[in-house]
């Protein structure tokens, strides 16, 4: 049996007596002590059988220390694999980088059975490492930045090699020792994605415990897996951000093209500026070219002051300097912002820590300034700054586009006024030639427009009705004075010429595109509901509604006005005649609306 002191152990415990009493017995993981004093675990198997008249006891003893160690190793390996699987699932299911880092750190610390750790990520915009996820006492450092090559994290990042520290506060490479507890050490490992390092991982535990080689091996595997996942989700978030930028520019383009109200466009722009640039406040200042003053037109995020009352001369203040110099101004400290005598007091009230003013330039012309501010430190990358300037360019386009539309609208309004004044002049001249009563054209036009509005015509349609009513008798310019002003009855031939004046109106006005939509009244106001009118003998709904309305109004005004050949009818006589002609000369529905109007 080698060096086993079997007899002494079993005699002392009485086990041999029990073995002798049974035919078969088996013990697993039985503790024994060797002759040399070493404690061991064995497997003991005995069998009792008869050999002739003698009872034989056969015992087999096997050292199982190696097997138990293998079991423990296997159990530990299974635990590590379970941890790797759990962390791998965490990396796959996390939707954002912040969520991934928080869950990743928590799972790693759980596997290592400790409570303190941190993940630091490299920030290209500032060229430093920042604490992106913390747990335990590391949370006191989460607003700190670490330079590359300095401190433990910076050294690990630069060298791409892990670094062990028995106690952080006694390590010469450690910064912020005033925020670290005594008696805590650990390890810092690089988070790698292929050949690139994206950050570092801290795992810390209290003395006397220290990281062992097996734990380091596990951590190395986890950091390789985590580094690749962080790099991948970083690229994904970057692509998402680019899509959001494109979507923001599309929203602004739609606002510019679909709204004539600059306030609506500015609201969309400021929403996108503060959302995508992640800043607390933003404002659009517009330059008045006549006074040289910048005025706050729209703003977002101001808590204390109303910037509307602030006006800046171009060249003064941060925004004025940006407009004058045609370049972006960046002020990166509250003290520097405060020193500006013009905008410093405003920004100081808003507790601005960083400030940007970007000139709004379109086609070489300064339209104003886009300013933004933030109340905390801001990581401004080149890409961030490029997008800020892109948004400023879109704002300048919006202002220029609105000014262009305003100028065009103003010019168009003046042109329409000129056209309408010309039409009024023509109408007055026609009244004088035809010896109509004073303001005949104005009266029939006003009543026709009122009835047309009540019958559901739009404002655009009413504008054409108005012009058509003013020019209703323009065709008489094609009739000679001998016929038009003849005091007596007209001959049949003369009536044929007179009845042709609506055709003259059509021929005169149809070539003028601006007046073509106003032709209904000059061309059709002598048509009758029953089809007996002229010049084309239209009937019922074939006659344009504007002409049907005007026919009633024109007859009423003519009957109630003095003419060279007769006195004016009374109001009652004229209304009775209109009623009698309903459904023959006039549209009955129009007649009813007319009576509502004359009430």
What does this structure look like?
It is a single chain. The chain is α+β, with helices and mostly antiparallel strands. The chain has four domains: 6-63, no CATH class; 71-238, Beta-Lactamase (2-Layer Sandwich); 259-402, GAF domain (Beta-Lactamase); 434-598, Hypothetical protein af1432. It has 20 helices and 15 strands. The strands form three sheets. It has a six-stranded antiparallel β-sheet with strand order 6-5-4-9-8-7. The N and C termini lie far apart (133 Å). 32% of the residues are buried.
CATH topology assignment of the largest domain? Beta-Lactamase
Structural class: alpha+beta
Please list the strands of the largest sheet in the order they lie side by side. Answer: 6-5-4-9-8-7
Shape: elongated
Query: How many separate domains make up the residues?
Result: 4
What's the end-to-end separation, in Å? Answer: 133 Å
Provide the helix percentage: 40-55%
CATH architecture of the largest domain: 2-Layer Sandwich
Number of strands: 15
The CATH H-level homologous superfamily of the largest domain: GAF domain
Query: Under the CATH scheme, which class of the largest domain?
Result: Alpha Beta
Give the DSSP E fraction (strand runs of 2 or more residues): 15-25%
On the 0 to 100 scale, the average pLDDT is: 81
What's the number of helices? 20
Unreliable residue stretches:
1-17
Rg over CA atoms, rounded to whole Å, is 48 Å
């Amino acid at each position: 049996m080698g060096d086993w002191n079997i007899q002494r152990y079993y005699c002392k415990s009485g086990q041999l007596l029990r073995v002798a009493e049974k035919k078969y017995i088996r013990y697993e993981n039985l503790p024994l002590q060797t002759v040399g004093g070493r404690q061991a675990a064995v497997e003991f198997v005995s069998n009792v059988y008869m050999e002739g008249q003698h009872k034989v006891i056969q015992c087999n003893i096997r050292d199982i220390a190696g097997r138990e160690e293998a079991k423990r190793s296997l159990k530990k390996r299974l635990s590590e694999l379970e941890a790797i699987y759990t962390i791998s699932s965490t990396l796959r299911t996390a939707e954002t980088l912040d969520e991934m880092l928080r869950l990743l750190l928590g799972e790693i610390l759980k596997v290592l059975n400790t409570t303190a750790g941190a993940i630091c990520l490299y920030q290209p915009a500032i060229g430093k490492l920042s604490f992106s996820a913390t747990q335990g006492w590391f949370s006191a450092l989460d607003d700190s930045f670490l330079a590359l090559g300095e401190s433990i994290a910076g050294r690990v990042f630069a060298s791409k090699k892990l670094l062990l520290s028995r106690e952080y506060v006694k390590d010469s490479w450690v910064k912020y020792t005033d925020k670290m507890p005594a008696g805590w050490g650990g390890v810092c490992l690089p988070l790698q994605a292929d050949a690139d390092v994206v950050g570092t991982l801290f795992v810390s535990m209290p003395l006397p415990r220290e990281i062992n080689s097996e734990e380091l091996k596990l951590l190395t595997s986890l950091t390789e897996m985590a580094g690749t996942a962080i790099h991948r989700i970083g690229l994904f978030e970057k692509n998402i951000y680019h899509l959001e930028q494109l979507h923001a520019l599309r929203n602004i383009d739609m606002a510019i093209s679909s709204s004539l109200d600059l306030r609506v466009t500015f609201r969309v722009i400021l929403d996108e500026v503060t959302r995508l640039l992640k800043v607390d406040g933003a404002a659009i200042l517009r330059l008045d070219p006549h006074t040289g003053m910048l005025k706050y037109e729209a703003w977002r995020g101001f808590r204390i002051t109303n910037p509307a009352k602030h006006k800046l001369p171009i060249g003064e203040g941060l925004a004025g300097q940006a407009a004058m110099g045609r370049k972006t101004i960046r002020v990166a400290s509250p003290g520097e912002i405060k020193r500006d005598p013009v905008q410093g007091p405003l920004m100081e009230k808003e507790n601005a820590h960083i400030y940007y003013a970007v000139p709004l330039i379109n086609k070489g012309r300064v339209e104003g300034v886009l300013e933004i501010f933030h109340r905390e430190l801001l990581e401004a990358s080149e890409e961030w700054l490029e997008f800020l300037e892109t948004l400023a360019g879109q704002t300048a386009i919006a202002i220029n586009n609105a000014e262009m539309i305003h100028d065009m609208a103003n010019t168009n309004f003046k042109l329409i006024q000129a056209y309408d004044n010309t039409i009024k002049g023509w109408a007055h001249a026609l009244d004088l030639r035809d010896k109509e009563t004073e303001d005949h054209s104005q009266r029939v036009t006003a009543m026709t427009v009122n009835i047309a509005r009540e019958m559901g015509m739009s404002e655009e349609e009413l504008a054409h009705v108005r012009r058509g009513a003013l020019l209703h008798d323009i065709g008489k310019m094609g009739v000679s004075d001998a016929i038009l002003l003849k005091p007596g009855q007209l001959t049949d031939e003369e009536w044929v010429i007179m009845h042709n004046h609506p055709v003259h109106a059509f021929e005169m006005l149809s070539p003028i595109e601006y007046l073509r939509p106003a032709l209904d009244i000059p061309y059709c106001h002598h048509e009758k509901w029953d089809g007996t009118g002229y010049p084309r003998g239209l009937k019922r709904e074939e006659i344009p509604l504007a002409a049907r309305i005007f026919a009633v109004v024109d007859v009423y005004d003519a009957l109630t006005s003095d003419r060279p050949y007769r006195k004016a009818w009374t109001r009652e006589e004229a209304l009775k005649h209109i009623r009698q002609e309903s459904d023959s000369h006039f549209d009955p529905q129009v007649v009813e609306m007319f009576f509502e109007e004359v009430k």
